[in-house]
C-alpha cells in the first residue's frame, strides 16, 4: 500500500471510528448533537432518523474524513508532534460548531449549546485529530527512514 493510499484509508477509518464514538456519546446524553445531523442539508424524509440514516451518516463521515486526512497530509505531514493533531482537531471542531453551524438546521447555534455538548465535541475532535495526525506523521517519517535506508544499501560509501 502506498503512503497516499494509507492516508485515504486512515481518513476513512478515522471517520468511521470517531462517528461511532459520537453516536455512543449521543446515546449516553453526553452531547445534544445527533451525528446524523450531517444528512439534514442534503436529504429529506424520515429515513434519516432510522437505522439506515445512521449507517449512511457513518459512511458519509468516513468520506468527509478522507478529505480532512488529505488536508492534513498536504500541510502538516512533516510535523511530528501529537499536539499538531490535537490543534487540528480543535480547529475542525470550531469549524463545525461555529462556521458550518448555519447549514445544519438540527444543531443549535454555538452560544446556545450546553457545556457538556461543547466539551464532548471538543474531546471527540481532539482525539480524531490526534488519530489522523499521528498516524499520517508517523507513517510519513517511517517511509522517509525506509527510503534513506534503501539509498544507503544501494549506494554504499567506499
From TrEMBL:
<feature type="transmembrane region" description="Helical">
    <location>
        <begin position="7"/>
        <end position="31"/>
    </location>
</feature>
<dbReference type="InterPro" id="IPR024563">
    <property type="entry name" value="YqhR"/>
</dbReference>
<keyword id="KW-1133">Transmembrane helix</keyword>
<protein>
    <submittedName>
        <fullName>Conserved membrane protein YqhR</fullName>
    </submittedName>
</protein>
<keyword id="KW-0472">Membrane</keyword>
<keyword id="KW-0812">Transmembrane</keyword>
<feature type="transmembrane region" description="Helical">
    <location>
        <begin position="82"/>
        <end position="104"/>
    </location>
</feature>
<feature type="transmembrane region" description="Helical">
    <location>
        <begin position="51"/>
        <end position="75"/>
    </location>
</feature>
<dbReference type="Pfam" id="PF11085">
    <property type="entry name" value="YqhR"/>
</dbReference>
<feature type="transmembrane region" description="Helical">
    <location>
        <begin position="116"/>
        <end position="138"/>
    </location>
</feature>
Amino acid at each position: 500500500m502506498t503512503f497516499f493510499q494509507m492516508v485515504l484509508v486512515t481518513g476513512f477509518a478515522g471517520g468511521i471510528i470517531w462517528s461511532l464514538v459520537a453516536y455512543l456519546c449521543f446515546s449516553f446524553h453526553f452531547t445534544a448533537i445527533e451525528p446524523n445531523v450531517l444528512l439534514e442539508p442534503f436529504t429529506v424524509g424520515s429515513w434519516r432518523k432510522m437505522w439506515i440514516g445512521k449507517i449512511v451518516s457513518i459512511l458519509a463521515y468516513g468520506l468527509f474524513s478522507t478529505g480532512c486526512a488529505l488536508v492534513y497530509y498536504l500541510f502538516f505531514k512533516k510535523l511530528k508532534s501529537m499536539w499538531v493533531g490535537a490543534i487540528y482537531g480543535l480547529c475542525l471542531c470550531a469549524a463545525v460548531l461555529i462556521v458550518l453551524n448555519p447549514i445544519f438546521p438540527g444543531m443549535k447555534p454555538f452560544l446556545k449549546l450546553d457545556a457538556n455538548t461543547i466539551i464532548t465535541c471538543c474531546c471527540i475532535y481532539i482525539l480524531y485529530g490526534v488519530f489522523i495526525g499521528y498516524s499520517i506523521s508517523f507513517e510519513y517519517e517511517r517511509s522517509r527512514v525506509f527510503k534513506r535506508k534503501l539509498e544507503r544499501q544501494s549506494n554504499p560509501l567506499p
